[in-house]
Request: fold
Amino acid sequence: METLYRRPLPGDAIAFASPEGQRLFAEALASGGLGGYFALAEQYQTQSDPAFCGLGSLVVALNALAIDPGRLWKGPWRWFSEELLDCCVSLEQVRSEGVDLDTLGCLARCNGGETTVVRPEPGEAAVDALRAAVVRASRGPGEVIIAAYDRVTLGQTGAGHFSPIGGYHTASDHVLVLDVARFKYPPHWVPLPRLVEAMRPLDPVTGRPRGWIAVRRRDGDHGVMLSLACAGASWPQVARRLREALSWSWPEDTEVAAVAASLVGLTEHCVARHAETDDHAAAIDQVLGALRATEAHRLASAVASGTSADATAALLLLLARVHRPGGGRLSDALTRLDAEAARIPALAAELDRLTAQSEALRATWSTA
Reply:
């Protein structure tokens, strides 16, 4: 089998470590175009799988933004790595198909980020929009731009690709692409208008142009136990089930026990994380104890048992979080359940995470 060691950059890309690349870096640093670079440089890594450019880029962004995943990586350490990005789409699917722009935005929101997903408009408006976003992100740490682009348009080999933008050189209108496929291309400077053109070809998966994602940190949402998951289904299937369960479609005279029973079929999509240390196990025990002492768990235990009852109770409390008060019997019951959970900090943190994840999926729900 033929093996490869990197590729030469095309002519209009300027290698980061070249004399010209170093000159651009020095001038960009002096002009304030690298305010976000150093946080990214601390976390810049090579994607761990040829199909993980999106996940690798997002890991760089989340760690650069100092977002606490609230989950263990290895040993006692909480840290983002690609295998932790298991919301919205399964790792197996990413490995075989990659991710599209909307799914990457979903993954960012599911893991503590606030995001803006942008696709290029026709004409120069797209160039101006990306330039404004890059300039804003380059002023200092706090926002990361991840570009989604077609490599062929840039004269590179391959197809769709993701990489973070590390900086901006104002005088030449170049951006620094921190290519996460470092086994293939080094980080490099490219003209910003050329990058926009590389965003215009349609992604064959979505039938829409690529673009970019602006990722910012969202405070809170640091649960230690509960998470929404695909559990072997396609995410559109899960999204459809969640939409039906959480869309608040029951009449106000519905008994809350009947609502709990309807959620049992979704329990495989509300999973508990594995405890790898004694401290983490103790934190999970605290959450479980709080959850099992609630009225929601009492209702769930009437229709399910064991971990299924735990997951049913958590989903019922999630529904209580997102329901629209209507003044009827069911609404009053859910409001009561929500108020009880809100008084327990450990449980409230878990519901913060589930709520953030469910809100992140709303765009998927609308098209599922």
Notes: The radius of gyration is 23 Å. The chain has 15 helices and 13 strands.
